[in-house]
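Sat 14:20. Reprocessing the chain from the morning session after the first attempt stalled halfway. Input below, unchanged.
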Amino acid sequence: VTCLTAAMIRWRRKIPYIDYHWDPFVYILDKVYARKFTRPVFIPLRALASWFDKLVIESSLVAITLSEKHAELLRSLTRKKDVIIIFMGCYPVSRIPESRGDYLLAIDRWDRGNMPHLLLEVMSRLKMDAKLTVAGFCSEDWIRESFLRLRDEKGLGERVTWLGPVSEEDLKKLYLGARAWLHPIEESSVSMPALEAAAHGCPVVMPKGTPLFRHGVQGFFPEEGDIGQYAQFVDRLASDERLAWQMGRAAWQL
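Finished this time. C-alpha cells:
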C-alpha cells in the first residue's frame, strides 16, 4: 500500500522511490486467500494483485525483495526492472547460553495463511514428553480459540501453553531458553522469527526450510505435510540437548 502511494506521488510530483517488496501482492493472495474465495472471484483478484505488483515495480527506481523465490515471481511480472535481494536484519546476542532449555517454542503473527494447528499434530506424535510454548498475535480470535479447542481434544493441555502476544524482553528470554523454534509452514521469504531464533542460538524446525538456512546444519526441514518426519526431527532435538546446542550455535554464527 505504501508503494502504491509512492507510485501516485511519482506520477504527480516526479519524486522517485525505491520499492521494497516485503511480500508480493500475488504471493499473499495465493498463500492466504486462495481457499477463501471461489474461483470466479479469485481469478480476477489475482489478476488485479499481479497488476499492482507490476505497477509499483515499473514505477520505481529499483525493486528490492527478501528471497530468490520472491525475486523470480516479481521478475516474471515485468521485463523493465531487475529485482535485488536484500535480507532482513536482526540483533544477535553477544553470547549464547551454554545449554539449551527443555521446551519447544513457536512464535509468529498467526493468520489464515499461517496457523499453528499443525504443531499440535506434531506434538501428539512425539516420543519425547516435550512441552511447547506458543506465542504471538492472532489476526482473528477464532484462530486462537480453535487452536485451544483442538489442543484440549488431543489431550495436550498440560504440554502446550498459549501465551499470546509478548514483550520484546520476554521474547528474548523465550528464544534464549528454548530447545528449538518450530514453525508450521514453509516460508518463501526469509522468516523473521527464524532469524530472531538463530540470533539467540536457537535451532529451527520448519517445512522445507527458509532461505539462508541449511538442513542438518542450522536446523531440520521436513517435507511439507509429512507430520511423521517433522515429529522425528523434533524428537531428535528434544532428546539430544547437545545436538540442539550445536545447531543453535551454527544458526547464531550465520
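The first helix runs from residue 2 to 13.
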